[in-house]
Design brief:
Length: about 290
């Protein structure tokens, strides 16, 4: 990692004084013996000057090496500070039973193949807690609906149409946003997935793909859906009751299902209450059979 020359210069920091002390001793010895002459003094002075130049070069090289080491340490410290492999980002209470640990894992990847509203719900709690969020390639993502859901618009970055650069834009936004919601607009090759996953882990961000994503940690899929509110040819849609099933990567997590109101009558997303038997429904009871 460090240059051999640079490591040698550490010892050279002490050499000028030692050489000076030895030089003074030699001159005193020569003076005592009467062997010093003017010409010899000139040569000794020239030699001391050359030694001083060499010492100055060594000191400059040592300082440069120290600057490189300090810079490297600073870069390593910055990289270590951005690694948040074990931390989790909060998510909506309705989705907590579907996610391992009840939270969105920093560095994780999540796939929501069909529902924009379900994907938007994954951003809600993290945004309300102060996290930056980004949405790439989802022009149908409604700003008013996001604000009504509790997403902080001041911390939301929208790139509705990234074109064929959607993957590069997604990777760039992972540097500044804790959750990036993106719609894959083409085939995703394993190499791109690996590089983006490494970037997410380093930055402590999470990816939510509106569509299929190779090797996603968790896939959330709407498996059943029922709307209510419409009567016999009249009325308005009021709420949608769905069953959402979560499955893990390569069967690592056993599929888990829960029922949600997506959305409820007031526009929120929450867990659905168990269906109770209607009060007017007929109840069949067993009767005794005459012998």
């Amino acid at each position: 990692m460090f240059e051999y020359e640079g490591m040698q210069t550490a010892a050279a920091l002490r050499s000028p004084d030692e050489r000076g002390d030895r030089g003074r001793g030699d001159l005193e010895h020569i003076g005592r013996n009467g062997a010093a002459r003017d010409g010899a003094g000139v040569r000794a002075g020239a030699g001391a000057g050359a030694a001083g130049v060499r010492a100055s070069d060594h000191v400059s090289a040592a300082r440069a090496a120290l600057d490189r080491i300090t810079s490297l340490r600073s870069r390593v410290a910055d990289m270590e500070a951005t690694r948040v492999d074990t931390e989790g980002l909060p998510t909506a209470d309705a989705l907590a039973p579907l996610l391992p640990g009840g939270a969105i894992r920093a560095g994780g990847t999540y796939s929501v193949p069909e529902s924009v509203l379900l994907a938007q719900t994954m951003l809600q709690a993290a945004s309300a807690a102060g996290a930056w969020c980004a949405v790439v390639g989802v022009p149908s993502f409604g700003v008013e609906a996001a604000a009504a859901a509790g997403i902080d618009l001041d911390r939301l970055v929208l790139v509705p149409d990234p074109g064929d650069q959607w993957l590069a834009v997604t990777a760039a936004l992972a540097d500044v946003a804790q959750i990036v919601l993106t719609r894959p607009l083409g085939r995703v090759v394993p190499g791109d997935v690996a590089r983006l996953s490494a970037r997410l882990r380093q930055r402590g961000a999470a990816l939510v793909a509106l569509g299929s994503w190779p090797g996603a940690d968790v896939t959330l899929r709407v498996t059943e859906s029922h709307w209510s509110g419409i009567g016999q040819g009249h009325g308005y849609l009021t709420e949608r009751r769905v069953t959402v099933t979560a499955s893990g990567r390569a069967g690592a997590v056993r599929p888990t299902s829960t029922e949600l109101l997506l959305p409820a009558a007031d526009g929120s997303v929450r867990a659905a209450a168990p269906v109770a038997a209607s009060a007017g429904a007929r109840v069949l009871r067993p009767v005794a059979v005459a012998s």
